[in-house]
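Researcher: Here's the sequence for the chain we discussed earlier.
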Amino acid sequence: MIAVTRQPDSTPPVASPAASVVRAVRLGKQFDDRRILSDVRMEVGAGQCVALLGPNGAGKTTLLHVLATLAPYTEGRLHLFGQLVRRSRAALRARIGMVAHQPMLYGELTARENLELFGRLYGVPDPGARARDLLDRVALSPRADGAVKTFSRGMVQRLAIARALVHDPDLFLADEPFAGLDVRSTRAVEGLLRSFVEEGKTIVFANHDVPQSLGLADRVIVLRDGRVSLDQPAEKVDVQTITKEVSAG
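Model: Thanks. This is the structure I predict for it:
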């Protein structure tokens, strides 16, 4: 169980620093004269599943890219696994897996070839064996030798998750992992996220579906205008509270 503490200024409970996977202190991001993130403070402990909610343009995607070390922050500090990101970005990426809006897969290659390729890029000892294991896990073994360009949206998303897991990361980030999925594929991806939690992986995912997020996450963070407007354990909030917070003007 992750120890939590409540700060004197009544901010939401956060994981103890010793167990932190993500620790953001007054994090900010600016593009030219446009501020995307401002004074973001969050601490995520090992094994936590955090749902990142907020209206379009709230900064969710930018925050995920910053956490993935794919975009630099311009203010504050960010520590991942206890390391300052500015000093050890390359090493930290080996411990992070991310599913973004684009699946980052090669359509002309088969599902197996894609996973083996990324396995080799990450230095996985036996990419073939790892690919077989992941294809089974995401229920794509029957289509292992099919070209990705022939896959449905749900199949591509499941393969993208397998690609993000090929190097067995400790931190899994997902930007709208359920977007465009049918009911069957949605259930499959939900099952994958739950299995990650059981394995002790840390998850931060952006989502628009409030009931679904509360059912999956043990913590909810709402972003509005690039700031954290709510950070609470999922069990302490309800759909109406979160929906009102997300839609507040």
